[in-house]
Amino acid sequence: MNNDLFNENQETFVPPSAKTFVVMPNIPQALSSLAAIANNMWWCWNSDAVELFRRLDRDLWEETYHNPKAMLGMIKQERLAALSEDDSFVSHMERVKSELDKYMGMHTWFHDSCSDYTDMKFAYFSTEFAIHESLPIYSGGLGILSGDHLKSASDMGLPLVGVGLLYRYGYFKQYLNSDGIQQEEYNENHFEMMPLELVRDEKNKPLIIEIDLHKETIYSRVWKLQVGRVPLYLLDTDFSKNSKEVREITGELYGGDRDMRIHQEILLGIGGVKLLKALNIDPGVIHINEGHSAYLLLEKMRQYVEDEGLTKGQAFQLVKSGCVFTTHTPVPAGNEVFNIDLVLKYLEPIYKKIGLSKEQFLSLGSFPTAKINPADFSMTILALKMTNKANGVSRLHATVARDMWSGIWPGLPRKEVPITNITNGIHTSTWLSYEFAGLFDRYLGAAWKDEPADHTIWQRVTHIPDAELWRSHERRRERLVSFARARLKHQLQRRGVSNIMSEYAEEVLDPEALTIGFSRRFASYKRGNLIFRDLERIKKILTNKERPVQIIIAGKAHPQDMIGKEIIKQIVSLSNDPELKYKVVFLEDYDMNVAHYLVQGADIWLNNPLRPEEASGTSGMKAAVNGVINFSVLDGWWCEGYNGENGWTIGSIDNYSDRDYQDELDSKSIYDTLEKEIIPLFYSRGTDGIPRGWAKKMKASMQTLGPVFNTNRMIEEYTRKFYITSSAAHEKLKKDKYETAAKKADWLNDIRNNWQNVHVVKVEDGIKGEMNVSDNISVKARVYLGALNPEDVSVQIFAGFINSKHVITSQEVYEMRLVSKEGNDFIFEGQILSDKVGKCGYTVRILPQYGGEVQYIPELIKWQ
Question: Are 442 and 514 contacting, i.e. CB atoms less than 8 angstroms apart?
């Protein structure tokens, strides 16, 4: 018997000749707007729209996990008929539809502030997008950031499209067995029950993207998800035109072996670019969010070479000018690499079509350092070498990234490695609680929704009465406790615990106690069990009858991360300790829904990664806008957010190589701060029961963090610093039938061929003994350029303090100007402003320059 004929989940026989069809809901004409609202994910960050769908059927709303389209397919026809006669409901629906129509047609920030660039188009590639919990094609922080990016791009009117993959099973659902060990299960996503539209070609047939891969062709369908004004296109291989192996490419997010992973990334990158071309979308800028989609750079080059007849040099310049890159992890192991043999197996055809040799191709994804195995091909290095601009996701992360990847630009000081920072943010309307949204409407004005990055609006938080702020927050804590109790009871029943033994779940946690929230991926560096290091001390803190404290924890470990799974097991074991049973709760299957309850209802948001391994982190930003106060290691975004008054820090900025010693210091810092500062402030109440000191700190947190750490501010930075400038550079290169691109390619070829001859011949200065502050120091450099011209180079003075190792620190760069030519040498002059007191020094260097702009090209720098 062929076991493939059985669907084990439903335990029903599927005849091989069965014909499939899709049944659509029969919605009364009076309720026709429901489908339009449900099919645009705008509803998920509009509380009035959420309430509209909840009114349809509150039980079904929970049963479908808040999926309006699924609800409309499952709700009884008599219920729809009754609602079509309900004037209140119809009026509510028409109001929401009117709000959606107004949103889609209104003027936006991009239209008003970037009116000279309205013909630009941008594309955003990411391997996961977290738009809502009812569309589970995400795993964690990267997906949350991608989803929030699209939402703010929609709010601000950016002409942007998203590109990703549509996974049949998505990321795993987590449950714990009776021993507290994480188990994984994968639930099928039924695309027809999601707000997805199958994209069709001009003949009204499903659009199919083809990718020739090794000995097989991959066929991919395309689905569109409308996220406000922004379309998100998702590639899917799970249909009958493909073989069983190819269908599994879009089976699981981050599932399978290395062969499966490279298939996914080829589909996303190469397939995504083919998709854009099929849709006649020609973006001036492609934003590569993490390195998973970096193969798109090669496909773009191939298109320019084969379709436009460009040389590989011209194609490289065009691709580089129109692509930008965001790296998300400061941990070398977290950056995607593939074995060279595997890369050559699948990418050889494309690099040969481009005209690259094997060595030229491999050089795009490698450099010999101790941090990257030379036998591996790095997606991050590929992206850094072939994009116009790159950034880390916080100031500290950018510093770490410049150190990690400095080997790409040998000889260039770390400070000048071309990786800047654009700190992450959150989509405020998505993460703000209903209660706090109401407070903001009353005291900040409705503008907070449209202009969350306006500091003056957030200053009005001070006008919110302490009592009103506190009562709103208490309601959120009560809802969190209620949610945790219900979820814990379900968890226990699933594990087979008797009803009598699971009854304690109805009384676990105290809705009035100081509540610490901790939820994130259980990677070892995030130290999910750090607060339990000194068990006796934390027990004393948690079980204090006068000032009780409790902890709610959630998070998943990667299926192959045994250390992360062991940490979860330890926490679950501790939650069963008789002394902690009512004080510590671990919630299974962390997702966007669980996150909403936690970031809106906790009092303290605990974050204790091993510094500096947290690139940014955004959960604390979500907590902050809800009045939850951050208690964090000075890592990631908190380095920028903390000002001494708006939260608490853990430990110091000192890092110790002894991990055990570091953990000991940081855990003691947690206990000390809880005992001496946090708990006393929380329980210091006025005669009316209001903790006014705590309310003051809540306000300070919201006022200082709300206007900065949001995706509107982030999107504006990307638009001004990356998108507009890169798009303009890209269009400039395309002008005159790519003549400009050809010129730059020829220029770079000349630079590379002649660079070995470039050198500083002699340097003279006006230094005579000690100098006074503000004295100008004149420097003259004699430079030999060989066949190059003076406009091809930037000659610079590199000056600063000299430390004990004779290294220049506190660096300043002064541009030198051409003054004459003597024989075969060019004479450049410049001045150093002597504005530092102490031992100083300088040297002269030469960098390539094109069109008056310095070019940071790997291996092209000459020092005196």
Answer: no
CATH code for the domain of 770 = 2.60.40
Q: Is the dihedral of CA 839, 844, 848, 853 positive or negative?
A: positive
CA 455 to chain centre: 24
> What is the count of structural domains for the chain?
4
Of 303, 137, 143, the C-alpha closest to 234 is 137
Is there a single domain that holds both residue 40 and residue 148? no
Q: Which amino acid is at 557?
A: A
Task: State yes or no: cis peptide before 848, omega within 30 of 0.
Answer: no
Separation of alpha carbons 676 and 219, rounded Å: 62
Q: How many CB atoms lie within 10 A of CB 60?
A: 18
Do 113 and 156 lie in one domain? The reply is yes
Sign of CA pseudo-dihedral 385, 387, 389, 395: negative
Give the 3-state secondary structure of residue 231.
strand
743: in domain:
no
398 and 365 assigned to the same domain: yes
Q: Are 591 and 141 in contact (CB under 8 A)?
A: no
Cβ atoms of residues 645 and 697 within 8 Å: yes
Taking the C-alpha atoms of residue 639 and residue 648, their distance in angstroms, rounded to an integer, is 11
Q: Are 115 and 719 in contact (CB under 8 A)?
A: no
Pair (503, 576) in one structural domain = yes
Cβ atoms 852, 747 nearer than 8 A = no
**Residue 852, token pair as written in the block:** 């008056």
Name 828's bridge partners: 781, 818
Judge whether 742 lies within some domain: no
Report angle CA 52, 58, 61 to the nearest 5 degrees: 80
In a domain, 526, yes or no: yes
Quote the pTM value. 0.94
CATH number at residue 449: 3.40.50.2000
One domain for residues 473 and 363: no
Q: Which single residue is written with the structure tokens 């800028």?
A: 285
* Chain-centroid distance, C-alpha 521: 14
**Extended strands (E) in 645-774:** 647-650, 759-765
For the CA atoms of 230, 235, 240, 244, the dihedral, rounded to the nearest 10 degrees, stands at -150
CA–CA dist 841, 803 (Å, integer)? 10
Range of the domain at 20: 3-105
**Residues 188 and 295 placed together within one structural domain of the fold:** yes
Task: Tell whether 681 and 725 lie within a shared domain.
Answer: no
Q: Which two tokens stand for residue 383?
A: 């992206």
**Rounded average pLDDT per 10-residue block, the chain, 864 residues:** 39 57 78 96 97 96 95 93 96 97 95 91 97 95 97 98 96 92 93 95 95 91 98 97 95 93 97 98 97 98 95 95 95 87 95 95 80 80 97 96 93 93 98 96 94 96 97 98 95 82 87 97 93 97 96 95 95 94 95 97 97 94 98 97 97 90 96 98 95 98 98 97 95 87 92 95 85 81 95 93 79 92 95 80 93 91 92
**Are the CB atoms for 44 and 67 separated by under 8 Å?**
no
How far, CA to CA in Å, does 107 sit from each of 110, 112, 156, 241, 439? Answer: 8, 7, 9, 43, 26
DSSP state of 252: B
Nearest to 354 by CA among 296, 322, 310: 310
The verdict on 57 and 119 lying in the same domain is no
**Which DSSP string corresponds to 155-190?**
HHT--EEEEEE--SSBSPEEEE-TTS-EEEE-PPP-
Cβ atoms < 10 Å from Cβ of 32: 12
Q: And the tokens for 393?
A: 């996701």
Q: Please answer whether residues 691 and 683 qualify as being in contact, where contact means their C-beta atoms are separated by less than 8 angstroms.
A: yes
Q: In the numeric block, which tokens belong to residue 377? A: 């091909």
- Residue 285's alpha-carbon distances to 161, 281, 320, 388, in angstroms, are 11, 11, 10, 10
Instruction: Please report whether residue 747 resides in a domain.
Output: no
* DSSP assignments along 386-439, one per residue: H-SEEEESSHHHHHHHHHHTGGGSTTS-GGGSS-EE----B-HHHHS-HHHHHH
